[in-house]
Design a protein that fits this description.
By secondary structure, chain A is mostly beta strands. Chain A has no helices and 11 strands. By secondary structure, chain B is mainly beta. Classes of the chains: A mainly beta, B mainly beta. At the A-B interface, strand 5, strand 9 and strand 10 of A face strand 5, strand 6, strand 9 and strand 10 of B.
């Protein structure tokens, strides 16, 4: 079993839909959880950052962490065509960046 | 403000050739990183430099060397390229060694390398 599992998609939704993106993980020591957005042929950019369990909201984006289930989610409300990208989850057990583990990414397509 | 700049953007190498990927950041960041990204795979850390003068191995360092030339520049060298090194390479930088809270890593645009 890989440390971080993420469905590659593609996930296709109509504009305005609520999108749910998810990752599961096996390492119970993970404490830092991140979501990156990567547009085609671009570098990843950090969207959301969460430490330990709980929810975090930023505009149309909400990140949830459920450490008891080893499950993290990113919700996008009122999705826009400009949200079409690949979303990568990432997590780490401590503050050392060398331990950061990325999921494979989920491709999201939002149609007008 | 250019952020993180990588050169070249594209490169084709023959097996056994060597090359150096260049990375420079203009944000006065202390930490810099090299990742590779392969189809169907996540980002994998090759090497990182927590601060000027230090470098450390990441998850997949074999076949690569790095140099932290100064605070701005961090290069990645392939001494004898192999087809397995065909990938997209990303350089990133952060103010401090991520992922501490509020320490965001900024990525470059990537270098697409093909080894034939």
């Amino acid at each position: 079993q890989k440390e971080v599992e993420q469905d590659p998609g593609p996930l296709s939704v109509p504009e305005g839909a609520i999108v749910s993106l998810n990752c599961t993980y096996s390492n119970s020591a993970f404490q830092y959880f991140m979501w990156y957005r990567q547009y085609s042929r671009k570098g990843p950019e950090l969207l959301m950052y969460t430490y330990s369990s709980g929810n975090k909201e930023d505009g149309r984006f909400t990140a949830q962490v459920d450490k008891s289930s080893k499950y993290i989610s990113l919700f996008i409300r009122d999705s826009q065509p400009s949200d079409s990208a690949t979303y990568l989850c990432a997590m780490s057990a401590d503050s050392g960046y060398s331990t950061l583990t990325f999921g494979k990414g989920t491709m999201l397509l939002v149609s007008p | 403000n250019a952020g993180v700049t990588q050169t070249p953007k594209f490169q084709v190498l023959k097996t056994g050739q060597s090359m150096t990927l260049q990375c420079a950041q203009d944000m006065n960041h202390n930490s810099m990183y090299w990742y590779r990204q392969d189809p169907g795979m996540g980002l994998r850390l090759i090497y990182y430099s927590a601060s000027e003068g230090t470098t450390d191995k990441g998850e997949v360092p074999n076949g690569y060397n790095v140099s932290r030339l100064n605070k701005r520049e961090f290069s990645l060298r392939l001494e004898s390229a192999a087809p397995s090194q065909t990938s997209v390479y990303f350089c990133a930088s952060s103010e401090n060694l991520a992922p501490r809270p509020n320490t965001e890593a900024f990525f470059g645009q990537g270098t697409r390398l093909t080894v034939v």
